[in-house]
Amino acid sequence: MQAEESGTPEISAPGSTNGKNKFRIKIITRGAIIRLISLALFLMVVCLWGYFFMIRMPGKSYKGQLPALTDKQILIRNELLRDVNQLAGEIGERNIWSYKQYTIAGDFIEASLVQAGYKVRRQGYEAQGKTCYNIEAEKAGTKYPGQIIVIGAHYDSAYGTAGANDNASGVAATLALARYFAGCTNVRTLRFVLFANEEPPFYHTDQMGSMVYAKSCRDKGDNIIAMLSLETIGCYSDKPKSQKYPPPFNLVYPSEGNFIGFISNMGNSRKLLHTAIASFRKNCLFPSEGGAVPEIIVGINWSDHWSFWQHGYPAIMITDSAPFRYQYYHKPDDTPDKINYDCMARVVSGIQSVIAELDARE
Hints:
The protein has helices at 30-55, 71-91, 99-115, 164-182, 209-220, 270-283, 305-310, 341-360; strands at residues 120-127, 130-139, 144-154, 188-195, 223-231, 260-264, 288-292, 315-319. By secondary structure, it is α/β, with parallel strands linked by helices.
């Protein structure tokens, strides 16, 4: 029997033009292309928004060889060297497990502030059966005394460490700033506060010293217009890859850990961040980077500024980025010889200008 008489249908080969059944697969449709373009545009907008809202800072970071220290910066360096050695060298580990040294550190801080001409107030509270103290020195403003600028650092060290960079560096800087402004006229009230119990197990709890302090300020109705938290500010390196970041910030920031960082959240502290870093860049020949970053990013809330955020106050952290740069973070080797005092003196002189501009704003 012949095929044409059998009634069996013919099947066209794929790709043939004469068959009744054609098999064509469209890998990318017009709709898919439109969706891909839309997604790319959306991601581009998000990246641009993130850059301009979170990363782009006013002014320009200093680049190039650092100039010689000025006479003023040499004096600052000598103060920092002396105080870091006293806290992390002579006194050493200071926390509730080394309670005697903790109280000696508090006495040293109080004596330093009294010697600078301040009347010192201690705020005591109980933590694990020990009395711990926040230490405050205040210089009232001449024109706007109700507007308060807080400059602070924690003076406890992590268990088992002498805490030179974390955070004798921040304490020494706070003391140096207090001495400087003791001889200046300020129109707003300046408070220099050294906090207890920032380190674990008190970190981010109600027994964290700065949390106790910030809550008491809110309860009293204090109008804190700015809080600067000075946290681990003594480590700097020009070596490539000496700086690390949590992603995605490793894609946009430099790999050399030679800068000082200014950090805020994305709320009401962002304006303070921009004001502070703009002033620093205008007045200090030292590299600086900044970011207004979501609090979910690792490291953003790792200090006493966090406590002020919890109570609605604008606050920023000024830091060398701690474990993202400093290899001795929370280790016994965090000793005074690891600190770069020349760079730290430059940073402190820049922070002087930041505070002066915050105080003088109309």
